[in-house]
Structure formats: C-alpha cells, structure tokens
C-alpha cells in the first residue's frame, strides 16, 4: 500500500523531479555548446533560462519552503515535538543559515505521515 502524502510532500516531489530533469537537460546543452564555443557566463545564463533550469530551481525552492512550513505546523501536534520542543525549534531556526540543516529538515518532512 502506498503511503498517503500531503499536498506539500507531493508538490515537493513534483518540483524536485522537474528540477532534476531540467538539470540533466542543462548539462547536455552545456556539453553540446562547449564543443562549438567557449561557455562564458553570458552563454551559461542563456542556457539556464532557455532550458527552464532557472524556473525549475525557483519552483523547487518554493516547494521546499511550503514543505518546511507544513512540517513545522504538523510536527507541533506530535508527542515527539512536545518532548523535544527546544531542540526542534533550534533546528528550524537554523533553516536559512545552515544548508545541511535545511536538507535534514526536508528529509524528515518527507517522512512525516
């Protein structure tokens, strides 16, 4: 039986898959372009826009934020949260300054049912 996922979890999965797809397309385009010309910053910026990578990145970031917000609210109803409130709040406080903590919170949020 498949686990039931929240709207935020589904949105994150969709955005992550799109980002990974656009990333692969961008890598191919960079390789193809490098055979023909130097890949300058200007060329790279054009490829990022042209392949949809930039939009996919922004959508992924928005989906991550929605997932994090959802998990923070949802977690407050769990016994584990009540027992470890300060430690969990400290994790969320580091969200925007510590990329590893952000990744960890996202991983944990995907496990919430």
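^ Assign residues to that structure.
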């Amino acid at each position: 039986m498949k686990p039931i996922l929240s709207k935020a979890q589904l949105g994150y999965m969709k955005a992550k898959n799109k980002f990974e797809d656009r990333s692969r397309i961008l890598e191919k385009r960079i390789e193809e372009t490098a055979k023909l010309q130097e890949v300058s910053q200007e060329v790279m910026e054009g490829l990022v826009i042209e392949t949809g990578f930039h939009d996919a990145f922004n959508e992924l970031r928005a989906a991550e934020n929605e997932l994090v917000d959802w998990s923070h609210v949802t977690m407050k109803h769990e016994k584990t949260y009540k027992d470890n409130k300060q430690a969990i709040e400290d994790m969320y406080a580091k969200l925007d300054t510590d990329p590893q903590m952000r990744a960890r919170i996202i991983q944990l949020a995907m496990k919430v049912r």
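The first helix runs from residue 7 to 36.
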